[in-house]
Design goal:
- The protein contains eleven helices and five strands; from the N terminus they run βααααααβαβααβαβα.
- By secondary structure, the chain is an alpha/beta fold.
- It folds into two domains: 141 residues, Rossmann fold; 65 residues, Putative phosphatase, domain 2 (DNA polymerase, domain 1).
- Strands 3-2-1-4-5 form a five-stranded parallel beta sheet, sandwiched between helices.
- Helix 10 links the parallel strand 4 and strand 5.
- It is globular.
């Protein structure tokens, strides 16, 4: 049954038991920012990387890599072929280097507060590259990400379970792992395509556009006050 308290208003606040957090673009800066800088530096069309990733989105190189169906070397070749077919050959390995964003301290502070009341779980589409769930490439950054990951009751990674957002099966999997039903979940993600099936299941969804907006929406959905 779908929730009648979408957005966390009124009595619905007290029905929520869990919060699902996407990682990149929510607790860190968005990789799309890095993509944009890369495109400008390489004289590529604006949003070209997103165009490649959104072409045949369930079976392309990106989708296969997030499910660990291909290796990094295989992804590199597949992505280059797919990007070449769209007019500009780009190495997949170069794109992987852009995935790790900078941690957002205010979002992490909100996460810490939320863990006192809610089952907080990370649900991330990632690839088997870099160091750990955040796909960082440097020890200093990895230490920071490790500290964030310790705050979660569990971390669900697409590259480890062979499912990726927005497949509805991954949301069923997350609910089972958390021991809740969809109506009891608040879910933050920076991609609307990932939020749509979760909302259809009954989750209260928050699209993270800016940090300020996300914190305001999360405060409304939880009843908590963030610094």
């Amino acid at each position: 049954m779908k929730s009648k308290n979408k957005g966390g208003q009124g009595p619905g606040i007290f029905m929520k038991k869990a919060i699902l957090w996407d990682f990149g673009g929510v607790l860190t800066t968005s990789p799309f920012e890095a993509f944009a800088k890369f495109e400008a530096a390489q004289d590529l069309p604006r949003n070209f990387v997103r165009q490649v990733n959104s072409t045949n989105p369930d079976s392309n190189a990106w989708a296969q890599f997030e499910r660990s169906a291909v290796t990094l070397d295989e992804f590199d070749k597949l992505f280059e072929a797919e990007s070449a077919a769209l007019g500009h050959a780009v190495s997949g390995k170069e794109i992987v280097k852009l995935l790790a964003g900078a941690v957002r301290p205010r979002m992490v502070a909100a996460l810490k507060l939320c863990t006192e009341k809610y089952n907080c779980t990370c649900l991330t589409n990632n690839v088997p590259a870099g160091m750990g769930p955040g796909m960082t490439r440097h020890e200093e950054a990895q230490t920071e990400v490790d500290e964030v990951m310790k705050l979660f009751r569990q971390v669900i990674e697409s590259s480890k379970i062979g499912l990726r957002k927005p497949d509805p099966k991954i949301y069923d999997y997350a609910c089972t792992e958390m021991g809740v039903v969809a109506d009891e979940v608040i879910y933050l993600d920076d991609l609307g395509i990932n939020l749509k099936p979760a909302a259809a299941m009954g989750m209260t969804t928050i699209k993270v556009v800016t940090e300020e907006q996300a914190l305001a929406d999360l405060q409304a959905a939880t009843g908590l006050v963030f610094p």
